[in-house]
Design the sequence.
């Protein structure tokens, strides 16, 4: 079974237990719509890769549980971000966003339910590192530095840019890297850097894709940051400058991988992801 | 220190750690607005009372942590329920609701943050029954039977009334009763009934208050159920019929208290709460 298939199966189980006859049918359907078909599973894969790099012989049960929880939290943030009071995005992953397909109220509840299911999954399935993983996930999502705070910066007249970028994007990458280590009993402190740099790379890559790809290629509305007057790397540094910063962030991420059993394979994975993230015609354009 | 003061202190601690300089100021303020000054702390007090009734000599640390988590979840549900896409209520506890005071986007994020903090508080502070309490809280809030599902029934064209009332109101009362037992190491199964009956009583009392009190007395807009075309006990059974059902639910709750060290004192507490919940002029009117 591919890693994506394993992640999907675990996500299906996290939601499936909800799909009994006493659940309101539209909420059931909206939950499924929000999670499937999934995205690239970047955060869950990072978590699993770090776990395997820390200890290639470890049981990855808790790492897969953490990976599932991360993806549920990520999906929750997408559903709420797309709401009319935030990005007002009508598409996500090439489909109508949840509030367009099911209404605003069901989109709010779907996001709420996904957050709760992320914590419930840890409680139901994590064998050993349940408390540690719950702390990692709540750090990454709660104020002061989690994704809820990242979104909240967009409502401030003066934005703390560093806090904004950290909370909005890096927080879940940091959680993925930390959770990978924690889930096999390794120390998580030295893995924060990898999460920070990858989060930063991902943010810049997203800004670049937002600037140069069409809505069809993106599977969601384009130039959202500009439309929503939000800080954006392409706006600040130009296409070439943003591209350079993306490469720097990838190099920093690769360098930050601590010495462990799987250092080399993890670095290769980082470079492979970097190529996937960079829009092809941009590589030609800036070259 | 009164029990309310202890609950407030614990709530303050659950939110206070968030209030550092890296948190967006409006989110900080909105979190405080959503939780303080609190309501009657009915659910936290039920949890603490059940814990003390199960074992008068027990350490109540985990019960207080559970009580705090319950209140944070309750506050989260109020903030999201008041949103324009649900009740569109402009007042709550005699103050502007969160979305009126801070905007819709911050209200969504404040609810999200309160849900996460409820689980984080358990992970940070529960000493012994962390996993059990996390399962109780997630059962009470997630689909298929938690409060998110309760709200979602309002978007269905055909409502399963029993599931709707259970999920929307009783679920958190059941959680409060179960959490009280669980937090002192007692079995929770026999406490479900108390939660169900109290939830039912509370729902009817709320319908009665909604029907006969002014917005000033309620601290929130009146006749919301009628305005929102929702099932309502007064609408279904009339004032007298609803009042009889309230008394029946209270009696059922008192009878359902299992035999334990504090059966009598818990029954007295239930009757005292019943008097507090029933609008005074209604007692005269129906009498």
Sequence:
């Amino acid at each position: 079974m591919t890693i994506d298939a394993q992640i999907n199966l675990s996500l299906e189980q996290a939601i499936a237990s909800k799909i009994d006859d006493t659940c309101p049918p539209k909420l059931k359907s909206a939950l499924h719509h929000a999670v499937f078909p999934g995205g690239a599973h970047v955060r869950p894969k990072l978590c699993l890769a770090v776990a395997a790099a820390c200890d290639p012989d470890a049981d990855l049960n808790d790492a897969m549980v953490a990976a599932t929880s991360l993806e549920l939290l990520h999906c929750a943030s997408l559903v709420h971000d797309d709401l009319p009071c935030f990005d007002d995005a009508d598409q996500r992953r090439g489909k109508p966003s949840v509030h367009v397909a099911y209404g605003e109220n069901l989109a709010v509840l779907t996001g709420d339910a996904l957050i709760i299911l992320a914590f419930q999954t840890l409680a139901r399935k994590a064998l050993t590192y349940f408390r540690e993983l719950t702390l990692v996930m709540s750090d990454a999502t709660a104020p002061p530095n989690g994704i809820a705070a990242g979104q909240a910066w967009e409502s401030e007249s003066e934005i703390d840019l560093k806090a904004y970028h950290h909370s909005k994007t890096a927080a879940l990458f940091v959680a993925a890297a930390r959770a990978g280590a924690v889930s096999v009993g390794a120390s998580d402190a030295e893995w924060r850097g990898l999460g920070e740099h990858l989060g930063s790379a991902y943010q810049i890559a997203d800004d670049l894709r937002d600037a140069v790809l069409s809505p069809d290629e993106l599977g969601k509305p384009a130039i959202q940051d500009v439309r929503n007057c939000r800080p954006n790397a392409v706006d600040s540094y130009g296409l070439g400058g943003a591209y350079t910063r993306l490469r720097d962030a990838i190099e920093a991420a690769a360098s930050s991988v601590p010495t462990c059993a799987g250092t080399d394979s993890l670095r290769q994975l980082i470079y492979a992801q970097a190529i996937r993230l960079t829009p092809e015609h941009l590589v030609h354009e800036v070259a």
Q: What stands out?
A: Chain A has a mean pLDDT of 90. The beta strands of chain A are 91-92, 95-96.
